[in-house]
């Protein structure tokens, strides 16, 4: 788990994905990533900063190597892939690195 000032980016698994993402009352941004992926490592600090600055969206991470069924279920074929869930449904999807301002603009639509 990564900690920032009061906002932790949790790792979720197949077991807790329904409760942490699908049943959340807030929109949830899911970062599908792998430890060996350079763009994923570039995105990690951006997500940390956004987690500190954005309160209306939770951010979680799914390691595709540890959770291949989740990655397959949401058709993640390239990483990093960010999927924003609202009311249990995927509403936005971005593949690849996203600069902080673009990510915040995307999330601002769901305030």
Condensed summary:
Helices cover 33% and strands 28% of the residues. It is α/β, with parallel strands linked by helices and 111 residues long.
List the helices and strands and how they pair.
Blueprint (H helix, E strand, L loop, with lengths): L1 E2 L4 E4 L5 H6 L5 E6 L4 H16 L4 E6 L4 H6 L7 E6 L2 E7 L4 H9 L3
Parallel strand pairs: 2-4, 3-4
Antiparallel strand pairs: 1-2, 3-5, 5-6
**Total count of helical runs of at least 4 residues:** 4
Task: Output mean pLDDT.
Answer: 93
Query: What order do the strands of the largest sheet run in, or round the barrel if closed?
Result: 1-2-4-3-5-6
Report the principal-axis shape. globular
Q: Which parts are unreliable, with pLDDT below 50 for 5 consecutive residues or more? A: 1-6
Helix content: 25-40%
Cα end-to-end separation: 25 Å
What does the main sheet amount to? 6 strands, mixed
Give the DSSP E fraction (strand runs of 2 or more residues): 25-35%
Which structural class fits the helix and strand makeup? alpha/beta
Secondary-structure element order, N to C: EEHEHEHEEH
Strand elements, count: 6
What is Rg?
13 Å
Characterize the structure shown.
Strand 3, helix 2 and strand 4 (58-63) form a beta-alpha-beta unit. The chain has 4 helices and 6 strands, in the order E-E-H-E-H-E-H-E-E-H. By secondary structure, it is of the alpha/beta class.
């Amino acid at each position: 788990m990564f900690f920032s000032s009061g906002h932790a980016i949790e790792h979720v698994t197949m077991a807790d994905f329904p409760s942490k993402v699908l049943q959340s009352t807030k929109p949830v941004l899911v970062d599908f990533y792998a430890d060996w992926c350079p763009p994923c490592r570039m995105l990690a600090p951006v997500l940390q900063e956004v987690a500190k600055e954005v309160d209306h969206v939770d951010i979680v991470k799914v390691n595709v190597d540890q959770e291949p069924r989740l990655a397959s279920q949401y058709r993640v074929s390239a990483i990093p892939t960010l999927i924003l869930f609202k009311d249990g449904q995927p509403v936005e999807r971005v593949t690849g690195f996203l600069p902080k301002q673009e990510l915040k603009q995307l999330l601002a639509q769901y305030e």
